[in-house]
Amino acid sequence: MPKPLAPEISTWPDEHPQLIGSRCASCDATTFPVQQRCPKCSGPEMAQMLLPRHGTLVAWTTQGFPPGPPYRGPGGKDFVPFAVGLVELRDGADAVIRVEGRLTASDPATLRFGMDVELTMVPFATDDDGQDIITFAFQPA
User: Fold this and answer.
1) Which one of 21, 46, 100, 106 is CB 3.0 to 4.6 Å from 83, fit for a cystine?
2) Which residues pair with 91 in a beta bridge?
3) Model pLDDT, residue 141
4) Dihedrals φ, ψ of 66, to 5°?
């Protein structure tokens, strides 16, 4: 059975998983992942919130080499380059937060700034028992 890379950051295995962030009750700053104190005003009144599933691709690049620690995916000859994007998650017309994450499309010809994307969950690696480890990514909407 697949298991999440970081179970505390999303509602997976829900059918339509969402990332879990937090919002400051004092200044309305939104964070991902959840934080106990507000990075904007240092207030302690952070409440968990579910982040929108849809957003806009603001920036992207291709990761052509294995990231440094704490990366737990394949390396060496097993490493496959992947795209990483900065996605602005929106609630209607209002921007909520920008989140960095993997993109399911890695071909530069298919990616463009401003394209609509949607949260999905994808296999990231396999653990020692052969079970898939799942992480979040954004796919073209």
Assistant:
1) 106
2) 94
3) 92
4) -60, 135
In this structure, the number of other CB atoms found within 10 A of the CB of residue 63 comes to: 16
d(CA 12, CA 4): 8
Question: What pLDDT score was predicted for residue 92?
Answer: 81
Looking at residue 103, its pLDDT comes to: 97
Instruction: Give the DSSP H or E segment for 5.
Output: none
Judge contact between 2 and 131, C-beta under 8 A.
yes
Q: Which residues pair with 84 in a beta bridge?
A: 61, 102
Cα separation, 134 vs 128, whole angstroms: 14
Residue 135 has pLDDT above 90, yes or no: yes
State the Cα–Cα distance between residues 99 and 33, nearest whole angstrom. Answer: 9
3-state secondary structure of 115: coil
**Measured distance CA(127)–CA(81) in Å, rounded:** 20
CA atoms of 73 and 126, how far apart (whole Å): 8
At 53, list the tokens: 């599933």
Instruction: Give me the pLDDT at residue 86, please.
Output: 98
